[in-house]
Amino acid sequence: xxxxxxxxxxxxxxxxxxxxxxxxxxxxxxxxxxxxxxxxxxxxxxxxxxxxxxxxxxxxxxxxxxxxxxxxxxxxxxxxxxxxxxxxxxxxxxxxxxxxxxxxxxxxxxxxxxxxxxxxxxxxxxxxxxxxxxxxxxxxxxxxxxxxxxxxxxxxxxxxxxxxxxxxxxxxxxxxxxxxxxxxxxxxxxxxxxxxxxxxxxxxxxxxxxxxxxxxxxxxxxxxxxxxxxxxxxxxxxxxxxxxxxxxxxxxxxxxxxxxxxxxxxxxxxxxxxxxxxxxxxxxxxxxxxxxxxxxxxxxxxxxxxxxxxxxxxxxxxxxxxxxxxxxxxxxxxxxxxxxxxxxxxxxxxxxxxxxxxxxxxxxxxxxxxxxxxxxxxxxxxxxxxxxxxxxxxxxxxxxxxxxxxxxxxxxxxxxxxxxxxxxxxxxxxxxxxxxxxxxxxxxxxxxxxxxxxxxxxxxxxxxxxxxxxxxxxxxxxxxxxxxxxxxxxxxxxxxxxxxxxxxxxxxxxxxxxxxxxxxxxxxxxxxxxxxxxxxxxxxxxxxxxxxxxxxxxxxxxxxxxxxxxxxxxxxxxxxxxxxxxxxxxxxxxxxxxxxxxxxxxxxxxxxxxxxxxxxxxxxxxxxxxxxxxxxxxxxxxxxxxxxxxxxxxxxxxx
Length: 655
Ligand SMILES: [Zn+2]
What we know:
Layout: H1 2-11, H2 15-29, H3 41-48, H4 54-66, H5 76-93, E1 107-113, E2 122-126, E3 131-136, E4 150-153, H6 156-160, E5 165-169, H7 175-178, H8 181-185, E6 192-194, H9 196-208, E7 218-220, E8 226-229, E9 233-240, E10 247-254, E11 257-261, H10 279-288, E12 290-296, H11 313-322, E13 327-330, H12 336-348, E14 352-356, H13 358-369, E15 380-381, E16 394-398, H14 408-413, E17 427-430, H15 439-451, E18 455-457, H16 470-480, E19 482-488, H17 492-504, E20 519-524, E21 527-533, E22 538-542, E23 547-549, H18 551-563, E24 565-573, E25 579-588, H19 593-612, H20 622-641, E26 646-654
Parallel strand pairs: 3-5, 5-6, 6-7, 11-12, 12-19, 13-16, 13-17, 14-15, 14-16, 17-18, 24-26
Antiparallel strand pairs: 1-2, 1-20, 2-3, 4-22, 8-9, 9-10, 10-11, 20-21, 22-23, 24-25
Helix pairs in contact: 2-3, 10-16, 11-12, 16-17, 19-20
Bound molecules: zinc ion (ZN).
Zinc ion (ZN) is lined by residues 172, 174, 242, 264.
C-alpha cells in the first residue's frame, strides 16, 4: 500500500507531459517512428521503454541507413517505472506474498471418493479439532458387479473421526455429489449446509428412504455470505454454472488460509437463467490470497471452450420446426435448463408437454415448486392423455438417454410402456452424451427404437457439456491464483492433464499434488505433503430395496459368472466315518450338458477314493472335512479346466 502511494506521488510531476505523449504514441505507432524524428525525446523514449526489444533495433538499423539520428538516450525515470511495474506484477502474481507464512496452522484434506474414478465424490477437510465433509456422492458399478445398482463410498474413516465432524457441505445436487447422503444419514447425522435445490433433492431422497426426520439437519444458505461452521471453518458458497441449477464453488477459510473448491463447473457467460458464475467473488479471494485450489478435472483434455447451455437452442428450434409427428426428447433428468429449453420450443410449436419417468417428473416438480423455472400448469398433460392429441401437438420429455433398461424410453422402445408405443412418425431426440460404459446399452436401445420405425436425432449440436474445458480451467487458476493446486474429480489421466494446465498457469510443479482416494494431504502456508492413507472403498447397494450387498456376495456372483459352480453331496456314518452311499456331484457353467455326466462321474470317483480312506473320527470336525472335500475337487477341476468354480459340499451324517 505504502509503496503504491509513493509511486503515484513520484509520477505526479510528469503527468502533464505524459498525457500528450500517450496520444502521440498512438498516432505514431502505425506509420513509422522515423517519420517525425526527434520531435519529442520523451515520445521516442516511451517506445524504447517498451519491453519488446525488436522494434527499437529495426528503427536503429533504418536510422543508420539513412544517417538520420543516434539512438535516443534512455529516460532513466521511465525505466524506473518499468522496474516498479515489474515489481507490481511480481507481487500480484505470486501468492506467497499474500499468505501468512509465519502461521503454524494447517489443514488436512482426504478424498474418500471421486479420484481415480468419475463420480462418488466425497472429501474430508480436517483441522486439529474439527472436520467437515464436502459432498457425499454415489457412483455406478462396473459390469462385473452383478446385481449391484449403485456404489456408495466406504464410511470407515468417517466412523473413526465421527466426533470431529461438524457439518456436511454440499456443492450441487448431482447424484455423484449427493447420492450417498441417505446411506450416510441412516448411520450418522450432521448438520447439512447447502443452497436450496440440493437440499430439496436430498430431502426427496430422505423421504424415499423413510428418514424424513433427518430433514431437520437442513441449513439452507445464501450465496455471497460467509457462514461460520463449527469453530474452525468459515465457508462461502459462490454461484457457479454447471449442468444443474444452483451449483456452487466453495471458499473454505481456516486459520491455515483459504481453500477454493470449485465443485463441478463450467464458465457459462450466457446461462439460461442469467445467473452467471460469480467470477467476482473468486477474483476477490484470488486478490486476498488463496492457499489451495481444488478444481474440476473432468474435461481437462478439451482444448475448446465448453459452449454455453444456450447454444443448444438453435438446434432445438430446428428440430421442432421440422418435426412432423411426436417428439420424444430424452436428457439427464437433472439438467433442468435443457428440459426447460426443450419445453419452451415444444410450446413455441404448439405442443403439449408430457413428462414421463420418475426422476424427470420429480426434478421438474421441484424446480417449479421452488421457482427455479416457471411454466403454466396447463401446458402439461399426463401420459394417458397423449392419445387424445394429434401427433404434432405432443412433446414427450423423458428419461433413458443412457439406455437404462428400466427407463421410460427403453420400455417404450421395446413396446412395454403402458401408455406410449413408438410410431414410425416419431422423432426421438437424444440430448445428452453417452457416459463412458453406457455406449452398449444406448446402442441397444437405438436398435429397438429404429426397428420400431422411429427416426433418431442425436447430433452433437443438441448437447453441451457441464464441465470446464482447458481454457476455463485456466481462467479459474488465474482468478484464484492459488499457492497450491489439487486437481480433483476425474480419473488419473484427467487430473494429470489438469496438472499440466496448472503449470502453464504459473503453479510450480512442486506445488501440485495428484491425490488418490484415501490419501491424506496436509497443507500449511509453507508446505503441502501427503501424510497418511486411510481406508477407502465402495459399498454395494441394491436399488430394489436400497439395501447393502455384502462384499462376499458380489465375489460369489463374480465366481459364479466367470467359473461356474460345483455342488456335491456325501453321506457318511457318524459312528465309524464310513461312506454309506456313493457321492453325488452336480455342476453348472463348467462343461457342456452332454459331458456333464462323465465329468461328474470323474469327480465322484475322486471323492469316493478320498472317503474310502477317511480316518476314524474325521467326521467329528465337519468343517475341516468340508474344506478337504473342497480342496480335492478344486485341485481336480483346476488340473482339467484351469478354472476355480464355486464349490459347495454337503455332508449328510447318518447313524
Ligand atoms: Zn455435477
